[in-house]
Amino acid sequence: MLSTLIYRSRICEGLSPSSLEGMISHASSKNELSSVTGILLFDGTHFFQLLEGPEKAVSSIFETICADSRHHNVVELMRDYAPARRFGKVGMEIFDLQSYSEDFVLQAVLDKGTSKYRLTYDDRALQFLCTFVQARERDNYLDIPQAEVWSFQADGICKTPEVVSLPDLKDIGFTFQPIIDPLSLEILSYESALCGPAGASAISYYSKVTHKNIYEADLEAQKLAISVAKKLGIGDKTLTLKFLPMTLITVPDAITALLGEIEKQGLVAEQIVIAITENSEKTRDDNLAEVLKQLKASGMRLAIDDFGSGSAGLLLLTRFQPEKIMVDQGIIRDVHKSGPKQAIVQAIIKFCSSLEISVIATGIIKPEEWMWLDAAGISNFQGELFASPALNAFPAVNWPEADEIVIKAS
Predict the structure, then answer these.
(1) What is the tens place of the pLDDT at every residue in 88-120?
(2) Shared-domain flag, residues 129 and 181
(3) Are 289 and 176 contained in the same domain?
(4) Suppose 189 and one of 45, 162, 238, 247 were both cysteines; which one would form an S-S bond, judging by CB atoms 3.0 to 4.6 Å apart?
């Protein structure tokens, strides 16, 4: 199967552009042995390369490219399939954009086209190439330093009062994970997640209640989460509660019951964030409108959780604007290496900025993910890079510290 792969990367400091000719010659010979062809562009700072050939061969060569220390910030822009090669006559040819005009390069690339109908201007690969030549997306090239620039130091604080001895926690538990602003060294909120005793799956808790009562059980569990958070010392921070999809709609007076528990614990409604997961069935439920009106009127705030994982997030935004959206970790994972994910995240940031909605990036496990998202404009994060969920406790936070030696060297 013929595969097409396009990536962009940044040349490493200290690498002489004059050495590129030998590098390209070696790569071209290697690619020819694997039946891989393509085009390489260079603008003095960034590379743009299109690879075509058998799928396994292209993937193998790209793995080697990613491991090459002569460049970094490798971002995969497109991986697709085609019936014929766009550029079949060259092993790998380089065009230095510093030496030629845009029109010359574009025409030269078109002249190298070998597909049956030549290259057409609605071809995605050609559009990527034109965009790079014309530098139309240069502002979106968010180059980040190596992960070694930052180290992460725990603050040494893990709040664990004897809440586990409460009778109410015999058959249930909660994990808490902070949402933070890493550069401001500020904990913004704690997210609570229901689990079974000793950290077992939440299924072990729900399995003990009948289907008819599952939503009532969920509501009672969330009320208990508020109590536990109070005992842990939530203070003036917010608490994010994750409900089952239909609990607030199904249980009569659920909002009133929550407000009662909030007052009982000496907290205020504005400290509670209700996180609902985007779900097409729930979004279209006529009762949802009334529930969210009550929620907003009470002072509690709304968040859409796992945004991007379902099919109804955008539709939900047209009907109700939450205070926060929590971007699904599937979109966040390796965002620094994926052009499609970067485009999606930048679009999310843009429309949320227009609607004055805060964006939280969840599931952060790599420094590079955090650095790219921070450069893109996100300041609120959650993930194991900073703190893992803790059972019936507020975990210590691993705050980032810049390594001045590495920064000066780079």
Answers:
(1) 766 677 888 888 888 888 888 878 777 665 556
(2) no
(3) yes
(4) 238
Domain with residue 248: its CATH number is: 3.20.20.450
What domain count does the chain have? 2
- Specify the residue for token string 């859409």: 304
Give the burial class of 1: count Cβ atoms within 10 A of its Cβ; 0-12 exposed, 13-18 middle, 19 or more buried.
Answer: exposed
Q: What angle do CA 374, 142, 356 make, to 5 degrees?
A: 45
Sign of CA dihedral 146, 147, 148, 150: positive
Segment 3-24 mean pLDDT: 82
Please write the tens of the pLDDT for every residue from 56-93: 999 999 999 999 888 999 999 999 998 888 887 666 77
d(CA 271, CA 327): 21
Tokens 């997306």 locate to: 137
Q: Per residue in 257-273, pLDDT tens?
A: 999 999 999 999 999 99
Please choose, from the candidates 207, 220, 159, the residue with its C-alpha nearest in 3D space to the C-alpha of residue 391. Answer: 159
Boundary residue ending a domain (113, 140, 167): 140
With both helix axes pointing from N to C terminus, report the angle between 254-264 and 214-232 in degrees, rounded to the nearest 10.
20
Domain that holds residue 71: 2-140
The reported pTM is 0.88
> Are 362 and 383 within 8 A, CB to CB?
yes
In three-state form (DSSP H/G/I as H, E/B as E, the rest C), the secondary structure along 105-158 is: HHHHHHHCCCCCCCCCCCCHHHHHHHHHHCCCCHHHCCCCCCHHHEEEEECCCC
Sign of CA dihedral 189, 267, 161, 391: negative
Rg (CA), the chain: 26
